[in-house]
Write a structure and sequence with these properties.
Length: about 280
């Protein structure tokens, strides 16, 4: 996906929302916004929204003096961990544990401080469990899972990663498979990083290897459009991509299941869906 005019106000709004988390005064927020506007004016907008957001978030971190989302990420992880047992029981008691774990993982995608400043995790879980998927390629996912030996999983946000863990553990309870779980190699909004991977005890699962992709900064991992990441995709039997950001970058590649809540009209239009829809689509 390429950036649309609708994306530009979103970048500027992120500057305000993120720097307010760090109690930055309005004069510094204005300077940060002007820096971001100068950057946006210098660009040919023939990039995906996340690729432009690499620089936007770098400006935010410079003005915040670090990662402004660090504390909200920890709170999101803690909240999701607090309901993990309840979600695990829901999966175990369901008629189709894999489908239920998939829906819970998609519900976790509501924990996103890019488009939102707050979220209702329990309310979203309740809504998603009671709703049909707007785009439902679950039968194909289940079929490919039954034949897979190596699964590549691109994660999205902190907090959400806890429900990704539940999906991974559910899959492992059904079949012996190996997972490559991908996080950001450095801070990027509230995206999951190695710190979150270890915090939620994902590292305790022997069948899971973790890798990092770039947050736009040097040394944080390969870019998601790089030949190295395309090689990862080819090497695995089943590829899962979580969230809008991964969809915006990886959606042009074939052979990937995208799992997400639709949160903005740009992504909705690309999917021929509506904002708020629950999506599991194979491309």
């Amino acid at each position: 996906m390429r950036v649309r005019p609708d994306c530009i106000p979103c970048f500027l709004r992120q500057v305000v929302n993120a720097l307010r988390l760090s109690s930055i005064d309005d004069s510094r927020i204005e300077r940060a916004q002007r820096e971001v506007m100068t950057y946006l004016l210098s660009l040919d907008w023939d990039l995906s929204p996340p690729e432009i957001d690499y620089v936007v978030q770098r400006v935010i971190r410079e003005y915040a003096g670090g990662d402004p989302y660090r504390e909200v990420k920890k709170r999101s992880n803690d909240e999701a961990l607090s309901i993990y047992g309840e979600c695990e029981r829901i999966v175990e008691s369901s008629e189709d544990p894999l489908r239920t774990a998939v829906k819970l993982a998609i519900a976790g995608n509501v924990i996103d401080f890019g488009p939102y400043t707050s979220y209702d995790l329990k309310g979203t879980i309740d809504r998603v469990l009671k709703s049909d998927l707007s785009i439902d390629h679950y039968p194909l996912l289940k079929e490919k899972f039954q034949r897979a030996s190596r699964i590549l999983y691109f994660s999205d946000n902190a907090g959400e990663i806890v429900l990704d863990k539940l999906l991974v553990e559910t899959m492992l309870s059904l079949r012996e498979v190996r997972f490559t779980f991908v996080v950001k190699g450095g801070p990027m909004i509230n995206d999951a990083t190695l710190e979150d991977f270890y915090y939620v005890s994902f590292s305790d699962i022997d069948a899971v290897e973790v890798r990092t992709v770039s947050n736009g900064d040097e040394g944080t991992g390969p870019d998601r459009r790089s030949e190295e990441v395309l090689k990862w995709i080819r090497e695995h039997d089943l590829v899962i991509s979580k969230g809008q950001g991964n969809y915006e970058i990886l959606g042009e590649f074939n052979g990937i299941f995208h799992m997400l809540l639709v949160k903005c009209p740009v992504v909705a239009a690309d999917l021929n869906a509506s904002v708020g829809d629950i999506v599991l689509i194979y491309r």
